[in-house]
Design a protein that fits this description.
Structural class of chain A: mainly alpha
Largest interface: A-B, 35 and 39 residues
Distance between the termini of chain B: 33 Å
Order of helices and strands of chain A: HHHHHHHHHHHHH
Strand content of chain B: under 5%
Number of strands of chain A: 0
Oligomer: heterodimer
Strand content of chain A: under 5%
Shape of chain B: globular
Helix content of chain B: over 70%
Number of domains of chain A: 1
Radius of gyration of chain B: 19 Å
Number of domains of chain B: 1
Distance between the termini of chain A: 22 Å
Radius of gyration of chain A: 19 Å
Number of helices of chain A: 13
């Protein structure tokens, strides 16, 4: 399972998974629709903001925030937990273990291969954002957009690794989908997916800021809408990539010891 | 009819045994059922930290809507979604054939395939939220209001179930749809807010196309004693029509079904 062979196989894995994404394009649309929550929250928060701004958010501010939220969520989606549960349960996992590529990397490339399709889904929303809310709704500095790219990549990694860690748990227990449901519950509350983090009352906000969740949605969105300065953004990125490191370590550790317990089912 | 009742009992017992097999999962599910409703309060709480009303609804009134949301979420995740997942898997693998050749109505069989009893906790939580809401308002609901609300609970369940049948029918056309449950849950999530939040196109969408307003907002209005009888009758007729359409589409899709494998 050398590093070199894994790297060499990457373009092929990517191509296969990409054609899979094309083949299941209807599924992609279903996925996009099921992450339509930001639009509902947009309607809800706009109703609240109708009588006057909430915090620093006007109705248009909420528009920019939640449209960006939709885009960031599209770009950072990962579903490896479901894949791993399915493969452990049906025995497909043993096939994957035979390959000379680290399975986590394999899953990662597969998940990343859906990105072009997901960008295609986000594009119309980006156009709506720019047309309806104007150029000022998003940041205009090139530096910020560079930071945004870094933030989205970091958010993707946190999301993917968390999902992979939960998926790895299926090696310990029979099924770990419920753990993923718990993760998603916390994620939707504290990532900014439903509520911009800064709208939480002051006493609970420090706790939320320490959790990894806001680095997945809120931080990239803040950078995207230019709500933070460059220094603040850099600080947030540092925190985000620290979490990437933590999740990477946890996932690899779980995987390594979980594999020893793995007995192939099916065949 | 009696035969179907007995069949129903057997299906419930089978799914209970199945659920108990995955013990860690079952325990976690019970915990999740306890915590889930509590977290549903968080967004509402944040909103009312910022403002004292939401699209014309006060805090206790919005609480009622949330209670109805919890109640129906319990029904959805305990009795409807699990079966949905099973059918989608059947269609993908082609094993739906085995269901179709059984000597009972296919829609009945797939609808009762799997239950998650732990989600019953949602019902208790919902009743708690109703009590809290009325205590906050300092009054009790009228008897007629409760009757109306109960009728609307039945129509809401019928609507949810019909929506589910429609979603399943989609699975016949789009094969790999293990994510349909997520779509369903995500769309339903909008029901936790009073329907007056949604204006224009959204309002029309959530009243007539995906009748979420009928499921949570109307029962709450009924509990507050403000629902007119014409609205009640309209709701009942609407739900019946909706379920008839859903059954029709299910039959059509089933006729089109050509086994995936085998």
């Amino acid at each position: 399972m050398s590093f070199r062979s894994g790297l060499r196989a990457t373009p092929t894995i990517y191509k296969v998974a990409f054609s899979e994404a094309i083949a299941y394009r209807a599924e992609m649309i279903v996925w996009a629709l099921s992450s339509s929550m930001p639009f509902v929250m947009l309607a809800m928060w706009s109703a609240v903001a109708a009588d006057g701004p909430v915090g620093r958010f006007t109705a248009a501010g909420f528009g920019a925030y939640f449209l960006c939220t939709f885009i960031v969520r599209q770009l950072t989606g990962a579903w490896v937990a479901w894949q791993m549960n399915f493969e452990v349960r049906t025995g497909v996992m043993s096939m994957r273990l035979l390959r000379p590529v680290h399975p986590i990397w394999h899953f990662g490339v597969e998940n990343a291969a859906y990105l072009p399709m997901r960008i295609a889904v986000s594009l119309p929303i980006a156009v709506i954002l720019l047309v309806v809310l104007g150029r000022d709704a998003v940041s205009s500095s090139t530096l910020m957009w560079g930071m945004w790219l870094l933030a989205v990549v970091g958010a993707w990694w946190i999301n993917f690794l968390a999902s992979a860690a939960v998926g790895t748990l299926s090696l310990y227990m029979e099924q770990s989908i419920r753990v993923m449901d718990v993760w998603f519950l916390l994620y939707s509350l504290f990532s900014g997916y439903l509520i911009p983090v800064e709208l939480f009352p002051g006493w609970i906000r420090p706790a939320i800021e320490w959790l990894p969740f806001r680095f997945i949605i809120d931080v990239p969105v803040q950078i995207m809408t230019g709500a933070v300065t460059v220094e603040e953004g850099a600080q947030l990125l540092l925190g985000q990539w620290t979490w990437v490191g933590v999740f990477l370590a946890v996932t690899l550790l779980l995987w390594k010891s979980g594999l020893k317990r793995f007995g192939a089912y099916g065949g | 009819m009696l035969r179907y009742l007995r069949l129903f009992g057997i299906q419930i017992r089978a799914s209970l045994l199945l659920v108990l097999q995955y013990r860690a999962d079952f325990l976690l599910d019970a915990v999740l059922s306890l915590v889930g409703p509590l977290t549903a309060l968080v967004p509402l709480w944040v909103v009312f930290e910022q403002s004292d009303h939401l699209a014309g609804w006060s805090f206790p009134e919005s609480l009622l809507v949330l209670g109805w949301f919890m109640l129906l979420q319990g029904i959805l995740e305990g009795a409807i979604n699990p079966s949905l997942t099973t059918v989608v898997e059947h269609i993908r693998k082609g094993t739906l054939d085995f269901v179709l050749i059984k000597p009972a109505d296919a829609q009945f069989l797939v609808s009762t395939a799997k239950f998650l009893p732990a989600r019953g906790i949602n019902i208790v939580a919902a009743i708690g939220v109703f009590a809290w809401s009325f205590a906050e308002m300092g009054r009790t609901p009228s008897a007629w209001g409760l009757v109306q609300a109960f009728i609307l609970l039945l129509t809401a369940t019928l609507l949810l179930y019909s929506l589910w049948i429609l979603t399943i029918s989609l699975a016949f056309y789009v094969v790999r749809v293990d994510n349909l449950t997520y779509l369903f849950t995500a769309l339903f999530d909008a029901a936790r807010w009073p329907s007056s939040v949604f204006r224009g196109v959204w309002g029309i969408l959530f009243t007539f196309v995906i009748p979420l307003a009928l499921m949570t907002t109307w029962p709450s209005v009924a509990m507050l004693g403000n629902l007119g009888n014409s609205a009640l009758v309209g709701g009942i007729l609407g739900a019946l029509a909706f379920s008839a359409v859903a059954r029709g589409i299910w039959m059509l899709s089933l006729a089109k079904y050509t086994s995936a494998s085998s």
